[in-house]
Amino acid sequence: MKWSLNELRQTADEPLMFEETLDLKASLQKRRPEILDVSPVLVKGVFSIDELGVLGYAKVKTTVTLPSTRSLEPAEVDLEFEFTEHYVSHHERDLSRFEDTDVVIVLENDILDLNSVIEDNILLQIPMQVLTKAEQQDDATMPNGGDWNVVSEGELKKMQKDEDGVDPRLAKLKDFFENSKD
Fold first, then answer.
1. Does the chain have fewer CB atoms within 10 Å around its N or its C terminus?
2. Please, are residues 56 and 84 in contact by the beta-carbon 8 Å criterion?
3. Average pLDDT per consecutive 10 residues, the chain (182 residues; last block may be shorter)
4. Could you tell me the pTM of the whole model?
5. Does a structural domain hold residue 58?
6. Has residue 14 been placed in a domain?
């Protein structure tokens, strides 16, 4: 679905409400090749005109399948979020009327494309750490190899506290500065 800013401004009397199911799998995979699958995206929202311009609000719900950041096994990430954005023409240069916390999107060609707006926000919601359900439940089992293993941050802190604090290779240097003061 696409609207021009002029079309949206003509609906100033009543907000433009929408409820759609979008298939964004191919376009999201093109933008982020590591995405394995995307369920149909349920979007419900409204565009309205206010003193600042076009204001958009939407609720989004979908499931994105990505490789686990720990094991590379497929992991489903349920995304359910909402966002509010202001849309302005590319002809407008003065954005000082907006607060620092406002999200302002400058539209090229003054066309608002709902699909690309939703895609952008889905990509922003993908977490840095993605784990399968089994990995989330069994946090103690970490990958390991012949001479390496992965430890959690908690385990690392515990190991650092347990250590004497001095690397045995540098133990002889610990008294070096005391002798040099004389």
1. C
2. yes
3. 79 84 94 95 90 87 93 93 88 81 83 90 93 77 76 78 67 69 55
4. 0.73
5. yes
6. yes
